[in-house]
Please model this.
Amino acid sequence: MQKTLLTKLSIIVGLCIVFSIGLSMISDIIYERQYYAESVIKEITEQHVNPQEVINPFIAIPTTVTPACQSSDTPNVKNKCEPSYSKIETIFAFQTQAAQNLKVNTDTYKRGIYSATSYEGQLTFDQSYMSADKTATLLGNDSESVTTSLNTDKTPLAKTITHWNKAKLIIPVSDLRGVATLPTVTINQKSIAANYPQMPMIENLTYVEVDIPKDVLEQLSNPTSQQNKDGLATTGSINKNLDKSEVNSQLSNPKDNQALNIVIDLPLAGISNVTTVPTGQNFTLSMHSDWQTPNFIGKALPNTKSITAKGFDASWQNQYLTVANNQYLSQCLSVPNHQCTVISESTLNIDSHSYNPDSLEASRGLTTDSTAVAGSNQSVLLNSFGVSFASPNDVYLQTERAMKYALLLILVSFGTFFLFEVLKSSRIHPIQYLLVGCALFVFYVLLLPLAEQIAFWQAYMVAASACVGLIGWYSYYVFGGLKRAVIFTATLAGLYAAFFGILSTEDLNLLLGAIFCFVILACVMVMTRKLDWYKVT
Model:
């Protein structure tokens, strides 16, 4: 008697092992389909537009540095003269209020059954450059200013030529294909045309630039003349003895009433996610979208957020990240001969071959010493934050979660068959176990392709109904009666419903799964508490 029982249990365990191998093969298919879907999205981004990363606009000024020649006391040895090199000086806004209004769509870009989540909308930057009257004097009156740095013994070290007349407003966008029309720029309530750079000032950054007109800056130079009459510093002393630290301190002094006000309306389109890099002194970002399932990404979460059925609203402000970006970006642009690359974090997953975490971490705190960086390529990854438009119906993730309970479902079904056999004295052949297991296995074969065509809950309902109906009809003939078939079918339907409930609660699925296993075990122990296993044949 016990030999027959052990033989049947061994057969059930063997069937479970066979089905677990089949389930692992289905898992491989899920990963393969997921990889194929990601490759299709990558193809779409290559042909249309990438995820976007927008850096807060800033003013860039080209600068030429000529190191002083080092004289030699050795006879017949020429003086050593280092070659001149170019770099970029940056001026960041004192205050920026950025606003993004994005409309998200999943039907714009499709490849068969696969689609990429795209967005389009308007980005508005409202900037204020404090003490802009002094900047106007510099840019409007002198085409160049020369600064000579001296050593402690009054020996000249280097001569710096700042090309003020070539200063431009830089609007960096990681993928300019997403800028369908050039942005509208208003400087002190006067519209200025933006354009793509013909000869980029910053070689390793994609951006749209705006020429700062002289007439706008000359309008701001009048208050300075009035201030000079009142006993303040003359413009001549500012022009001739101005270095970068003095420029930035003057441009960031909120005590002066005059400001250079810049408003930028930037149309933007992209795929999957959008991030913003804060720079300047005071940066705030507000975002509104019609997407109901946002996934906030980056180095900072929003300070406030509101998610409803109509979309979401969020706002960010992080002073530490803003100040850190000022340092990283200004140091990178100050590297001689533009040998520093600003890497967009939004495209790292797409262009993974260009991502080197070690070099990026090492790029924090770049040196501007020409002897240290000449001939070397460096990179910097700026801090950003934003949102990823996560799909609410990730069929591959949900199918993968359903697969985790597949073996448990088969064990419970076989166990129910076995209990009917030992409690009701039904005789069930191992082939019948095999056929019922195959029907349970087919559920997962149906689930994935159906979920790729319709919503996951609909695919789950169709596949579960088909398998429960088939097994219920077959169990009528296995048990030889309607009552037992109805009980088994209802039990199986309850299992599928319970598993779907567990899958639907992402935060509590592990807890609910553990409780479910405990309840199943308790039910089996209660039902077999009076069973004499030595008498089971």
